[in-house]
């Protein structure tokens, strides 16, 4: 979700849903017949894959009906549930329904597909939408971005879009009003980032099979609940490694089956996908030529879609086109941001001939009851929303912990539960744009059913995925033991000039660690036990660990991040490990937020060890300071009690 600010100055802000900028595209039918979406759907699908549609985009194009479990549902109902979830969130955050809606779609869609999308929008209760082809939205964004190279009227550009589930190409001509599509769009509906992840799985598997072939095969065939959870966790590791290799040349991939980590290089992954990537560039060239444009006459080639950031993509495109492609900003947000510009600034070009806007579905379908049920189901997607001052979110329930220690902020509350939805916006405007990226999903809803929630490389455990297969365990809690009395008696009294001051724990920390140390309230920590914590997640400025007061089985860890996005990426990865909807204060897995004095302080995430160890972890954040703390203990109840009494970490 993206909001335009009140001044209308073409700035936008991605609005979080499920505490994340990115939501899985998967839709899953639960035991009671309700459609689950987003993180809830991804977790349910890991256990009941037969009830899930991983690629609603393909389903919307392929058939009117989609089978989930033992039920056949209309595909538009699945999409309508997705749109309804986003619109409800936008309405709640902005105090009213959207005045305008724009849906984006693949350029190759015809009136049949856009008609289905319009029907889904009607089921979701949306006003008649405007349709914007995705390459047009991407071109608008790139052409109007700050510092962009001007594209003169009459010039042509090409768009290479490699998303999670599909690959699309298009050629556009710059017009005085915006952009128009030239010639037939191209692409491959059966190739996308999911296939790259599958290729990486094969690369990892080739190494693991040397030492643990049976364990590797069992990892992908175990149908038990635990097996499903381990498989989902492994897929998260693979996705993170794939995205990490866009910025690094080597990663270490944790492998559950071998209880080890496998070293994978960017060269190995690129070799594995070379035969799949080369045809995508061939398709781009074919699309350009069929539009009647010489490759050398292109004014620019724009890359969009999360998988377009694979370095080999730029290399292959540049080698064939003769110029470097343009790839700036967040590749998953390009289409959504362009749609915002198009609908608010009038920069959109006419719709592609292949996808004319269908007539508005004025009348409700015959099975109105089914439509209403589908429209009312919660569903995730990404939307561009009008901004307004932040509104206090409605909490599903509030747990009042025991009174905090003296000197603590009072009325500390833990707000837990994975069904808590968070969306943050500011300012006031008057449009809502749901970017329906090829599946009636808004653009930041990714086609990857188990996406890494943020564009920066995230970790699913306290230790980054590129360095360890399991969370870097905190040091076992230690105590500071004073010298024995007889040792003190044997020590001669030094001369005054020889007296030295023993360094404190703080003195032994680096400068950035000392800055973090100084921010902490040591009334809950043993300050002389503090030491550096050897972790290195993306965006980390410093990390230390100290004994808790009272002690837990492991030391309390605190990480300082350099930005909100880095912190969010780290926490999103932890949230992906939550299976359950319990209460952190009682030692059961959950994901939500925590507040103090009726103000949201940060996120609260807790879960059992994903590898079956007898360890319960709790992560919580102080969002304003970009600080995340973590505790681990063999007793979930004791960890929850410690957090309840000691969660306010700042001085």
UniProtKB/TrEMBL annotation:
Presence of keyword Hydrolase = no
In Pfam terms, one family for this protein is HSP70
Question: What residues form the membrane-spanning segments?
Answer: 422-444
Q: What keywords is this UniProt entry annotated with?
A: ATP-binding, Chaperone, Membrane, Nucleotide-binding, Stress response, Transmembrane, Transmembrane helix
* Species assigned in the record: Actinoplanes digitatis
Q: What PROSITE patterns does this protein's entry cite?
A: HSP70_3
Comp. bias (Low complexity): 455-469
GO MF terms on file? ATP binding; ATP-dependent protein folding chaperone
Domain of life the protein comes from? Bacteria
By what name is this protein known?
Hsp70 protein
List all Acidic residues biased stretches: 483-500
Say if the entry is tagged with keyword Endoplasmic reticulum.
Answer: no
Similarity remark: Belongs to the heat shock protein 70 family.
InterPro entries for the chain? ATPase_NBD, Heat_shock_70_CS, Hsp_70_fam
Which parts of this chain are annotated as the region Disordered?
A: 445-512
